[in-house]
Amino acid sequence: MTxxxxxxxxxxxxxxxxxxxxxxxxxxxxxxVSSQNKERLAELNxxxxxxSEMAIDYAxxxxxEAMELGATGCGVESRAEIRRLVFQRSSVKDVHxxxxxxxxxxxxHPDARELGLAPASIxxxxxxxxxxxxxxxxxxxxxxxxxxSWRLPSGAGLLASLNIDALFFDILPPALRDRGEAKLMLGDxxxxxxxxxxxQPGWEASxxxxxxxxxxxxxxLQTVLRIDNAPLQSWxxxxxxxxxxxxxxxxxxxxxxxxxxxxxxxxxxxxxxxALAAGEFQPYLQPIFSIDDKRIVGCEVLTRWIRQDGTVVTxxxxxxxxxxxxxxxPMTRAVMRKTLKAxxxxxxxxxxxxxxxxxxxxxxxxxxFAAEMTELVTQAGVDTHSVVLExxxxxxxxxxxxxxxxxxxxxxxxxxxxxxxxxxxxxxxSYIQTLGADTIKIDKIFVDAIGQNIAGSAIxxxxxSLAAALSMNTVAEGIETEEQRAALRACGVDEGQGYxxxxxxxxxxxxxxxxxxxxxxxxxxxxxA
Length: 529
Known about the structure:
Elements: H1 3-68, H2 76-88, E1 92-98, E2 104-107, E3 126-127, E4 133-140, E5 143-151, E6 157-162, E7 180-186, E8 191-196, E9 210-215, E10 221-227, H3 229-234, H4 240-252, H5 254-262, H6 268-278, E11 281-290, E12 296-306, E13 312-313, H7 319-324, H8 328-349, E14 354-359, H9 361-365, H10 369-380, E15 387-391, H11 400-412, E16 416-422, H12 429-435, E17 439-442, H13 444-449, H14 454-469, E18 473-477, H15 482-491, E19 495-497, E20 505-506, H16 507-516
Parallel strand pairs: 12-14, 14-15, 15-16, 16-17, 17-18, 18-19
Antiparallel strand pairs: 1-2, 1-6, 3-4, 4-5, 5-6, 7-8, 7-10, 9-10, 11-12, 11-19, 11-20, 12-13
């Protein structure tokens, strides 16, 4: 074989390897993104169900409040009190009084019947897990609404009518809105009580569309997302040609990749143990500030892995490794000790200053957790009232009753307990209701939506009202603009956290920031939180 032939074969081999890697990369990207898209749609469906449940929860709270105030009749004072409750609740459109025969006797809005906005009567409805509560499909001239009734032992009661359509319009990403629908259905019969669909008259999803459903454990509700297959094939696929090109490039340097692959891969657990021994996990503190005047009232302690060569490893690359290999607890304790020791002078000067640490549900439920926390805080010379334990959303709590007892024990010792990223992950309304925490932390996803759409403000208002009813305070995460702060302040949020005041800082820089006063703002050009 001549040199020319060998070159030709080599050239063809390079082309084949390049084409193979490009095809594999493009296909892998397509399959991965398709899988991720399904997960995103499933999460959107869960959010849709969660929004609907919160709206109904809000209505139930309003009806219970009316019952407690004795506003169950059609007298002047009762109707005035009911109108006040309707005015306070953006999702509640009206409240009606019905008799033991189900006939509507009066409404909060005096002209509701004349305007066709009050039903003549209601039936027993679809029962919820709460025996007093039932849901109804209310048909009006301008559309259908969800009805939430609370029936007294006499058979009479109150009926709240809700317009949930406003919570649906932004649930689908813009790329899918013209080819998808979202529906909320009531009972086993699947009566549609709220729906988003493309504005084209008579639009129906195609036969090959993908559907995802979810059912509520507390209410007779089901949600369904249905998306045509065609837009799903291109959704989030913009980078596929680039990925294929990169795959082809890797094919051309296959030999180099092979050599690198043959190198001994460091054991990640060994790396973590060495980092723990060397004290490489460092606390980074992000200020928590008063929503009224941006005065710094505390901080949340985050963690960065700072290697000895100065390389910074962000939490998304090591937290899961720590949890999976049983190292999250020793890392957390080390960060706590270092932080409290450094902040002791600051806390001693300001007893109201709070330091928040993230803890996992598994750590909280461990038998010696309260004793360890007490010993750690005592050794640091800090009062337990200055420490907030934030329960993370990454793991589900297997036993809410046991967790509630542990929370009560911690609070009796002086610790504060917060629910991190409320409304996302595992931290839902059941946790708020059961655990008896002190603080609700509102996730950045809802802060980003405030002022952008009705749903964002409505959800935050619901959380603030729920917190107030349960004597809890609220902290909004991810605040980046003054406009967001003003909107959150209008919603009644107590405290905030985000780049508007400062990025997460090393301990020394944080102490300097507090010492300089609350007018000092640190530019948001650093490691992402």
